[in-house]
């Protein structure tokens, strides 16, 4: 699927994953660049998850410098070299520093007082990639402020969906992303989220957040300017799959502690196709 080494690509968009389907719906001319963005995102996230903080800081510093090298046409990593070879203004890739900022927040185990603060984090952690992906997919100058905002929101919602799905693993890793005011309202503690079987209050927290996210998915899909929807098809697929994942989590009554919730091998391509149909 990509000019990148399979071992690198499979860590970022393994076969059958949601990102894999997003790439399937990406035009061949932009597919390598889209893959490169996913690889960079995966590498930066992985750096922040290192058990050794010194190693994590060193790796993030390398990526901070690599983004600067990309902007200045001196990239070293295979993924950044692909982006460097594109006939576009490389200065826009400075937005990849948003991923570094989010990774620093992950490493610092930052918490978020309310959903507004969580959205701001997700706009960096998830929105920066979809913002850049949209710029690669559409012709130069075609994306207006409304289009850029919608692309960023879709990525932010994807990241927020991952937080719902991975709440127990994050709790074990010492990370707490769920809004503190929502946890307090339901009387839920960090320790409660580590349980294999989530309590009714913990599931209520996930239910409230899921309802909000699904409403935002619908509104954001509708906000994409009509002239951009065909270009945004890979984003519709990626976001649509995550919206479908939230629906599955809801059907399981938000019991996400026992195992990682996934869409099935039949449901996933069907949901991807339905999401792609919206991009018309």
Percent in strands: under 5%
Number of helices: 14
Q: Please estimate the helix content.
A: 55-70%
Describe the largest sheet.
none
Structural category is mainly alpha
Low-confidence stretches: none
What pattern of helices and strands is seen along the backbone?
HHHHHHHHHHHHHH
CATH superfamily of the largest domain, by name, is Farnesyl Diphosphate Synthase
Highest-level CATH class of the largest domain: Mainly Alpha
Which architecture of the largest domain would the CATH scheme give at its second level? Answer: Orthogonal Bundle
CATH topology of the largest domain: Farnesyl Diphosphate Synthase
Protein architecture, described:
The protein has 280 residues and is mostly helical. The chain folds into two domains: 1-108, no CATH class; 110-280, Farnesyl Diphosphate Synthase, CATH 1.10.600.10. The chain contains 14 helices and no strands. α4 runs antiparallel to α6, α7 (115-125) packs across α9 (145-165) and α13 (233-251) packs across α14 (267-278). The longest helix is centred in the C-terminal third of the chain and has 24 residues, at 200-223. The radius of gyration is 18 Å and the shape is globular. It starts with 5 loop residues before the first helix and ends with a helix.
Keywords:
14 helices, about 0% strand, globular, about 280 residues, single chain, Farnesyl Diphosphate Synthase, about 65% helix, mainly alpha
